Each structure stands twice: as structure tokens, then as C-alpha cells.
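Retro notes
What went well: the complex prediction finally ran end to end.
Inputs used:
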Amino acid sequence: MSTTFTLDTSTSRATPVAAPMKRLTVPAVRRRKAEIAGGTGEPLVMLTAYTVRTAQLLDPHCDLLLVGDSLGQVVYGLPSTVPVTLEMMAAHGAAVVRGSYHAVVVIDMPFGSYEASPEQAFGSAARLLKETGAAAVKMEGGAAMAPTVAFLTERGIPVMGHVGLTPQAVNMLGGYGARGRAPEEAAKIVDDAQAIARAGAFSLVVEGVVEPVALTITRSIDCPTIGIGASAQCDGQVLVAEDMLGMFERVPRFVKRFDDLGARIGAAAQTYAADVRSRAFPGPEQVYAPKA
Ligand code: KIV
């Protein structure tokens, strides 16, 4: 499967992307750690994307696009990420690759597709990369997942780790609160991060931890950390795009809204509805005249 796609604009609504440029690579992302330490690198920018059009809009501004399993809640209205399937991740992953030409596309391994054994993880990850054209997978978990991270990276599959608040473990954690408030838990999260980094992860999402934990991890591992609810001193940041665009009423502490798109979409739909009901839409510009 090619990662460069040409859209047929006569049949597709999707806006064609500009002339393809060279995609950023996994090694370039990993190198950013040293560049930041040396004062020559900027923090990594990552956002989630689930659809081709969102990918097209976000891609020019991002180093990485994450096809997060948060799509279970954001796109499908599921109660958590637990029910998300490999099929869902493959379908959305392929759409995001088709809509991007610059960012490294990373796809979340859904719950149940990788935890049983390194072999199970390899099969799932290989399927995702083959069916989508994405460059890497992300998996949640600490030291227990380190052998799996090593198994995949040694076989050519780049892995982004994910420690701290790991939403797939919501049933064990009992909720989505910040982690690492107690010293023992803080030490465990740092150990987890170091084990995943040592196993060969090319980058590590650090989610929902008290700031000192994020700082200790960032200073002690040799791949870039990407924070969410962590610290501005991480080597990069990620947010769910719909959160930062203001699509939801609830704004968790770690989210900054950069727009109020939910309200703007509602207002546009209200104006459309009023125009339809008053027969102001369609106007003369939107109807077809017969040939003169
Ligand atoms: O699924 C997701 O969107 C994520 C990010 C929040 C890091 O894992």
C-alpha cells in the first residue's frame, strides 16, 4: 500500500492535498530529543485525527498525527476505549494516511489486540501497518509490556509507548484521575517509563500524571516524551483535536480550548434550519437553470 494518494476530485468531496512533500520519519522524531537538549529542536506537536478531512487540515501543522483509540468515545459514542476494535483502527488509520503527507501517522493498538503475547502484538501491529500505510503503533502499559515493545522494534515496527493514566486500564484504575500523587505510584510510573524506553520505544506519551513525575521521566529517558496533562517541559504535547477545538462542553483541566467549534457548528445548523424553513435556502445561486 502506498502512502501517497491521489484523490479523484471529480468524485470526491475531499480537498486534494498540495503536492506531496517528504514525510517526517520515526528516526527524525526520535532525534528531536537530542536536538531539544542541544537547544536546536522545538517541542514535538501531535494531535489526534480520525478522518481524512481532519487529517488534511491538521497535517501541515503537526509532526505526528495520532489515530487514537479515543475515537471510540469521540466518533462512536462508546463509554470507554475498551470496546474499540482492530477493524475500527485500521479503517480510520487508512483514512488519516490518505489525508496526510507530512506528519508521522501513529495508530493506537486497541485493547485486547496486543497484551496476550509479543506474537499477538506483532500480528496486530503488522496488520495495522500493512492495511493503512502508517509508520508506527502506540501501545499502553509499563514494565510488563517492555518485552513486547522490544519484540516489535527488533522486528521493524516502531512503537510509541504510553504510561501514567492509561485509559484502556480504566477498569483497574477506577477512573480517569491524575496518577502519581502517592510516592509509590509515582516511582512505579517512572520505572514503567524507563522500562518502555529501554525496550526501544521511539517516543513515549505521558498522560495524566503529577508534574514532577513527567519531569523525572523526561529527564531520565533517551526518547522524546509527549505530554497530555503532564508538563510543558515534556519534549512534545498531544491533545485530542476535538477537545482543543472546543467540540465538547466539558473541558478537563489538561485541555486548552483553541476554538469554540461546537458552538459555531450549532449556530450554523440553526441558521441553515431557519433558511430552509423560511425557503430562503436554496437561493437562485444554488439551483440549476435549464439551457437557454
Ligand atoms: O487515544 C488517544 O487519543 C490517546 C491520546 C489522548 C494520547 O491515547
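What we learned: The radius of gyration is 21 Å.
What to try next: split runs per interface for comparison.
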